[in-house]
Amino acid sequence: MQTITKQQLLDKADSLLANGTVTAVLGWSKGEFGYDVTPKMFTTKEDLEQNFVWNDFCGVNFSKYLVSKTDRFEGKILVFLKPCDTYSFNQLLTEHRFDREKVYAVGIPCEGMVDVSKLKAATGDGISEIKEDGDNLLVTTIYEDEPATVPCRDVLLERCINCKSKKHVAYDELLGDEGEIIDSARFDEVAQIEAMTPDERFAFWQNELSRCIRCNACRDACPACTCEKCVFDNPNSGVENKAPANSFEEKMFHIIRAYHVAGRCTDCGECSRVCPQNIPLHLLNRKFIKDINEFYGEYQAGAEVGSRAPLVDYTTDDLEPGEVFDRRDMDA
Amino acid sequence: MRKCSLDTINAIFEAIAKTAKLYIPADDKDGSAVYKQWEEGVLWSNALNTVRSPKDFFFPQMETLMEFKTEGKNIEVIDTRSETEDFVIFGVRACDVKSFEVLDRVFLTEPVDSYYAARREKGVIVSTACAKPAETCFCKTFGISPEEPAGDISTWKTENEIFFKANTPKGEALLEKIAGLTEECDETAVDSQKEKIAKVMDKLPLKDLTTDGFGGGKTDEFFNHPAWDELSGSCLGCGTCTFVCPTCQCYDIKDFNTGNGVIRFRCWDSCMYSEFTKMAHGNNRLTQKERFRQRFMHKLVYYPENNEGLFSCVGCGRCLSKCPISMNIVKVMKKIGGKMSE
Amino acid sequence: MQVNEHKPLIVAFCCNWCSYAGADLAGNNRLNYPADVKIIRVPCSCRVNPMFILRAFQRGADGVIICGCHPGDCHYTSGNYYTRRRMAALFSMLDFLGIEKERTRVEWVSAAEGAKFAATMNDFVEQVTALGENKRLEDLRCKR
Questions:
Q1: What's the confidence (pLDDT) of residue C14?
Q2: Distance CA B187, CA A305 (A)
Q3: Which of residues 44-63 of C touch B (CB under 8 A)?
Q4: CATH architecture of C10-142
C-alpha cells in the first residue's frame, strides 16, 4: 500500500501542466486487469484524469525513457521517480544521456511494488479486480465469489524485498516524506552462490541461463544499457546473434551484458522484473557490485552525479586479479 | 470416446513414451510451465499454459539448415538433417492448436518448408480443454472454442477422470496404442464439462472483444491511425511478445563461421528489432512506431488479407502477461478500432 | 606415458611494448615453452576486451593468459592499471558462473624478462593441462 495517493500525484501533474512548468507528464496508464499498467506521456488534464494510475504495480523505472523522450522534445517533461529510479536518473546524467533542463523530476515515496507472477501464484488465474485495503490487496477472481486477501509484503518484487534505499538522490521537488538508505540483505543470495562448489555454481547458472529466450527484454529495459547500437545487434561486430544457439552464447550474452554495466548498474532490478523466464539476472549485477565494494571500496552507482565508475578508475595498489581468489580462499 | 482415471495418467504417458517421444507441460520455476520430455517422475503441470508456445516443436528457435566445408578450391555442402522421429505433444490448449493452422499456411504453402513439414508430419497433437482460463485469455475473439479443442486427439480433464476423442487417423492410431489402459464411455461427462467451460468463458474480462472492423483490405484505414504514436510510445523494442507468441513466424537465416567451416542456420527474428529485415539499402522500418505497427497490422490486417480472413492471433494471452510494459494486442485492438460489442 | 593426452590450446594476449618483446627474448635465449601457446599481440594489455577472452574460449582455447607491463611501467602510463581492475572483476565473475578459475590468468612480464615469460607459459600450460579440455565455456559448433 503506497503512502502517497494517486490524487496527490494528479494534483501535482495538473498544476504543473496548468502553470506551464511542464508540457508533458510521464506517468503510468491503467490497463485491463488492474495490474497491467503501461508507461505513457500525458499531455492533457482530461487524459490524466481518465487514464493515470498510481498503485502497487507501477514498477517501471522511468529514468531510461527520459533518454528517448527528451530527445528533440520541446519543453519540459514531468517525471515521477521512486527512490530506486532516482539512482538510475543520476547515473544517466553522469553519462550525459539526457538534458537535465528538459526534466522536472518529482520524487515520490514507494512502499514496494508487487510482483504479478507471485500475486497470481497466490490467487490463481482469473483476476478481474484488485483493490487496496491497508497493507493488503483484495483480489477478485472469476472463480471465487469472495475476494482473496493477499498481504502486499508476501508478493513484493525481489528488488523491493531487498530495497536498498527509500531516500531520493535526485529531484526538483519531493512529495511525501524522505526515507533512509537501507542496510539491506541484497548480497545474501550472491554470498550463498559464492559458497557453493564450482560444480554447483555451474549447474545453477546452466539451469537458469538455459531458459533464456534471448528476447533482449533485460537489455532493453535496463537504464544502464543505452548504447545507440548494442554490440549484439550489430551485424558487423561478429557476435551478433538473435538466438541463444547453445550454452556458450547464453553465457556470453549475459556475462558481457552484466560486465558492460558493471560499476554503472544501480541495482534497480528491472532486468529480473521484465524477464519472461524469471531468470534471476540481478544476481549477476549484484556479484559485480559486491566485488567492486570488496575490492575497491563501497560504491553505489548513481548516488551522486559525476562520480567515476570503479572500472574506469584505478589506484596504484589495487589487488591483482589472481589475489581475488587467494583472498576468498583465506576468508573461507 | 474413451476414458481413464487421472490416477493412471502416468501409465498412459509411459505407454505413449514407449512408442514415440512424448512432451507434456511440466512445472517450471515460480508456477510457470514448460514442455518437457516425459520420463518417470515428470508430472503434468496444473498451470494453464506454458510460457513458451508449442510452436517450438515444429519451428524451433534455432535450427541448422546446412553446413559448408571448403578444401582447397572445393566446397562441400552438407545436409545436416537427420531423420525426424515420431513425437507426441500432450496437453496443448485450443489456442495453440489453432496456431498450427496459422503456421501451416505460411510454411506448408508453396514453396513448402521441408524442415517444418517433416516435423509436422511426425508430430501427433493431443489437445486438452481448458477448465480454468485466465483473465488474459481471449481465444473466443478469434472463434476458438476452448471446450472443443482440435488436434489429433482431444481430451477433457474432470476432477478425477480424463476423456479422449480421436479426430484424425493419426489420433486413432495413438488411441489404439493406449486402448488397454482406457475404457469406452459415452459423452455425458464431457458434455457437462463443456457446459461448465462455456459458463466460465462468459465471465472472462475480455469476452466482449471482437475482431469486427479488422481483417483484409483495412490497410488504408489503420496504417496512418493517429493512435500508433501513443501505443508504441513506451515500447522497449524487445522481442518478448514475438518470442512467446504461438503464431509469430518470422525468421532470419544466418551463417556462422566455426573456424573450420560454415554453419547456415535459421533462428527466430522479431519485427520489434531494429535490424529486422535489414537489407543492403538499410532498413525499411526506421522507428519503433513503424516496427510496432508492423507487428499488429500483420496480425490483424495483412495476414487475414492473404489467408481468407484468418487472423494470426489466437488469443492465448502470453503477450498480455509477459510484456515488460504491459502493452499488447488487446490494448491495440481496443484503441484503434476493435469495438467492444454491447 | 599416455598417448592421447589432451594438448591444450592457450591464447596469450601480449602487450606490444613488454611481454611481446619478452617472448622474443625468450626465443633469442632458446628458452623452451610449449608450442600450444598462441600469442596475439595487442598494443596494450588494456586493449583486451572481456569479449576477446570469451571469444577465445568459444573458438577452442582451453586457457587464456594476458601479459602486460608491470604496474607503473605502462607505455601509455596507466593502461595496465585498468587491465588489473577489469580482469579482477571478469575472472571473479567467471568463477561465479562455475568456470574453472585456473583457465585464466594475468601476468606482468617486462621486455627484459624472457626467462619469466617462458617460466610463466610453462606453468600456465601445465595448470591448464591438468584441468583438461575446456567444457564449460565451449561452443560445440567450433569443435574440430
A1: 98
A2: 70
A3: 59-60
A4: 3-Layer(aba) Sandwich (3.40)
